[in-house]
Each structure stands twice: as C-alpha cells, then as structure tokens.
Amino acid sequence: MPLLTAMASAISDGDIFNETTCGSLLHQLQKIWDDVGESDEERDRMLMQLEQECLDVYKRKVDQASKNRALLLQSLADSRSTLVNLYSALGESSDFSTIEKSHATIKEQLAAVTPVLEELKKLKEERAKKFSDVISEIQKIKIEINGGLNSNKPPVFDDGDLSLKKLDQFHSHLQELQKEKSERLHKVLDFVNMIHNLCGVLGMDFYATVTEVHPSLTDSAGVRSKSISDDTLSKLAMMVLSLQEEKASRLRKLQALSAQLIDLWNLMDTPENERGLFNHVTCNISAEVNKVNDPKALALDIVEQAQMEVERLDQLKTSRMKEIAFKKQAELEEIYGRAHIEVDSVEAQERIMSMINAGNVEPSELFADMDNQISTAREEALGRKEILEKVDRWMSACEEESWLEDYNRDENRYSSSRGAHLNLKRAEKARVLVNKIPALVDNLVAKTRTWEEEHGMAFVYDGVPLLAMLDEYIMLRQDREEEKKRLRDQKKYNEQLNAEQESIFGSRPSPSPGRPLGPKKIMGPRANGTPTKRLSLHNGGPRSAAKDSKRDNGSRLSAPANYVAISKDDSLPDTP
C-alpha cells in the first residue's frame, strides 16, 4: 500500500493547512473502502486520481500566485516609473536605495512607494496650480496688451516640466509683463493727462475726446481697468499729436489776429480801456506753443471773438488809412518842397485813394513804404542841402543886386530923407555881396556838376535844371555887361558930339527931360523875392537850349521817385 502511505504522508503534511478535515476524510474513505472491499488497484487508482486533483489545485494556486506576483511587480514598476516621472516633472532627484534596502518583499516595497507617490502627486497638483495661476496672469496681461485678442483661450502649459526652475522662468516672464504693463499704464496716464491739458487749453470736452479712443480711459473706469493695448497707445499718441497740431494752428491764428488787432488799434488810435477787453487775446502774441497752458486760452470762441473784432475794425480802417496816408503824403511833399523837388500832389492823392478803395495793399505795407519814401526824401534833401544853401545865397545876392540897381537909379538917394542912411549902409553891403556873385556862381556850378556826376542825374530846382538856370543867368549877366559897355561907348560918343557942336554953335544942348537911360536890369532867379521856376532862354546858348529841351520832356524827373506821384517811365537824360 505504498500509494496509500504516500497519501497519508501528504495528508499528514497538509495538516498544516487543515489537519482535521483532510485526515478525517481520508480515514472515512479508507473505512468505506474497507467496508466495500475495494481492491488495492482500485484504491490506488482512486488515490492517484485524488493526488492528481490535488496537484491541479496546487498548480492553479501557484499560477494564480505567480500572476499576482507579476501584477505586484508591474504595479511596483509602474509606481517606480510614476515616481521617476514625477521626480522628473517636479525637477527632483529620484533615489530608491533606501526603499530597496529597508523592504525586501514586493508588498513592502509597494507599501513604501505608495505614500511617496501620493505625496508627489499632491505636490504635482499644487505645482500645477501654481503654473496655472502664473500662466493665467501672463495670459491676462498679454490679452490686455494685445487688446483682447484670444481672450477665450484657456491657459496651456506642459505638465511634463513642473520644475521650480521652469516656474521661476514663468515668474520672471510675468514680472517682465507686469513691468511692461506698468510702463504702458504710465504711458496711457501720461497721454490722458496731456489730452486733458490740451482739451482744457483748447476748450474741448475731455471725456468725449478721450472716449473716442477707448471707453476705459475716463476717470470713472479706474486705473486698473484702463486699456493699455498697442492700439490704444497708438490712438492716444495720434490724438495727442492731433491736439498739439490744433493747438499750434490756433495759436498761430490767434497771434496773427492779435497782430492785426494791434495794427488796427494803432491805426485807429484805440484807447487803452478798449484794448484791455482783448488782453486775453493779445497776451499770447509772442508766446511759444508749449508756454500757453491757461484754460480755454485757445478756445474756438476766443478765436472767433478776435476774428469778429478784426473784421469790425477792418471795416472802419479805410477812412483812417486815407487820413494817415494823406498826412504822410503831405509830410513827403513838404520835405520835397523844402528841397525844391516837384511832385504831383493830385496824382499822388488819386493813387492813394485808388489803392485803399481797391484793398490791394495792407495798411502796414502802405505806411511802411511811405515811411521809407519819407526817409529817402530826407536823405535826398540832406544830400541837396549844401547846394540849396548856395542857391539861397545866390538868389539873395541877386535880389540885393536888383535892389542896388534900383537904388542907383534913384536921383534922390543922397537926400536927407528919413531912412536914407539905412539904404546907404545896405547899398554898401550890397556892392560887396554883388562883387562876390561871379565866384559864388562858379562855385555853385562846380558843386552842381559834381553832384550830378555822383548821382547820375540832373540837379533840378523847382522843376528846372539848376545848371540851365545858372547858364542862363551867366549869359544874361554877360549881356548886361555888354549893354553897360555899349552905353558907356554911347555916352562917350554923345559927349564928343556935344563938344563938337559946342565948338561950332557955341552952346550945349540941354539934356532931354525925363529919367536918364541906364543899363538893362538883369532878372535873377527871383523877382520881388518870389522864386521863379523858369528863366527866359531866348538869348541862351547851346547849353540853355539843351536844358530847355530836356526840361520840356519832363521837368519833374530829377526829383526822387514818389510812391504815388511819379511813374517809372519818367526819366531825365544826364546833363552833359
């Protein structure tokens, strides 16, 4: 019964698991076999079958245990892999030596790995939340910068790299964006302040102006909610530039109107109290654009007010312009008159009236040009002064010469009448002065010729070339000398004839009654103290004839150009 013995031994060994059940069953089976009388072969067969069934049960158990071990090993491997991944994602160094040395079995290793794994998973979740928060902040600032583009896109990050280094990079990037946001916000606030100041100066509605750029830029929106996008900054910059250009344009216009106001006030002699009403307009006449910061200093109503005042005064300036222009023209004619330069007063006034009525000239231009003419006339008069003084001396001498001739013809000049001694003294002085006339005339001729060579034009005195007057005077004086000589010869002839008659007839004919004949009186440049504009040239020589011909072509052309009286085509040929 070796098989039965083996089974009994196996059952005896199996008592470790279930000693009571297996042993009793085997004894019951043997008892039954004994009662039945089973053969040993049958008993062996049945025990072999029972042994096989036991082996199958053990084999299944072993297989199942093997599978469980494999699952545990796989779980341990997965846990280790997860740990490696977590350590890698979190940027931590992985070390399993402590777990492997302290725990030999698989379950013990799993038991040691599990809390570490749970801790790392929790740490990963916390780290992922930090990444999500910082990336959300980054995305939020980027959305503010790009003006709301991709605003619905959720934050995306790589959960395979949740290291502190990576988190620090995101934090650094966030700080850069926060700094950029702060800078952009400062730019926005600066632009908004500039727009506020410009709108104040220009008298414009600040809220309506800034809302055109972005509704969040008003004070009610708060600082944090203000738009800082590139588009907003660009529009703000354009708005500031536009307002600055408008400010500069209005200032230029207001300064031009201020200058016109001051010119019109000066023209109209406006009192100071009326000018003071527009101090807010004229106070910026020379101000730089960046210095004008007073509220509503350049408002449209201020510009329109100045423009209306200019238009009002402009309608009143015509009569005042005529008054001032005629006054200046009179001053100009007075200067020319003292310098003995002829001007056409009627033509001058007509041209002034024509220009003012046509509105072709600005008052400042007209008066400035007339002032230039007056200045030029004064300079020309100053350049003629020396010659005119000599002409006055010459004319005075000629008057004295004429008086002396009349005095010499007076038979009662030596009488004891009242004032005879005064005439005698005057006659003595007149003879001295008359003797100087030839030298005075020669000097005047030389000075006049020098002046004409320097100026390239004839020296005209009251419309008559001075050299022609002097040449005529010299020729008339020569005629007078010849007349005197002829009279002296005639007198000698008469005396001889009388002497012959007396010797023949013994008596002397009495002189014919009446005033004795005297030499022909020379008419100087003046008669009875009144200046003459032309001397008779019927006895003149070639120079006088040439001068008279030039004078007939245009006697006024030697005078300086008059703004309104003399045309440019009038010119006098140079005196040879």
What does this protein look like?
The radius of gyration is 68 Å and the shape is rod-shaped. With about 575 residues, it is an all-alpha fold. It contains 16 helices and 4 strands. About 20% of the residues are buried. It is about 70% helix and about 0% strand. A hairpin with a 2-residue loop joins strand 1 and strand 2. Strands 1-2 form a two-stranded antiparallel sheet. A two-stranded antiparallel sheet has the order 3-4. Among the domains are: about 1-120, no CATH class; about 385-505 and about 520-555, Methane Monooxygenase Hydroxylase, Chain G, domain 1 (Up-down Bundle). Helix 15 (about 465-505) crosses helix 16.
Notable traits:
mainly alpha, Methane Monooxygenase Hydroxylase, Chain G, domain 1, disordered C terminus, two-stranded antiparallel sheet, 576 residues, rod-shaped, 1% strand, 16 helices
| Architecture (CATH level 2) name of one domain | Up-down Bundle
Give the C-level CATH assignment of one domain: Mainly Alpha
Largest sheet: number of strands, sense, barrel closure: 2 strands, antiparallel
Shape summary: rod-shaped
Rounded average pLDDT: 78
**N- to C-terminal separation?**
183 Å
Fold-level CATH name of one domain: Methane Monooxygenase Hydroxylase, Chain G, domain 1
Derived structural class: mainly alpha
Percent strand: under 5%
Question: Nutshell version of this structure?
Answer:
By secondary structure, the chain is mainly α.
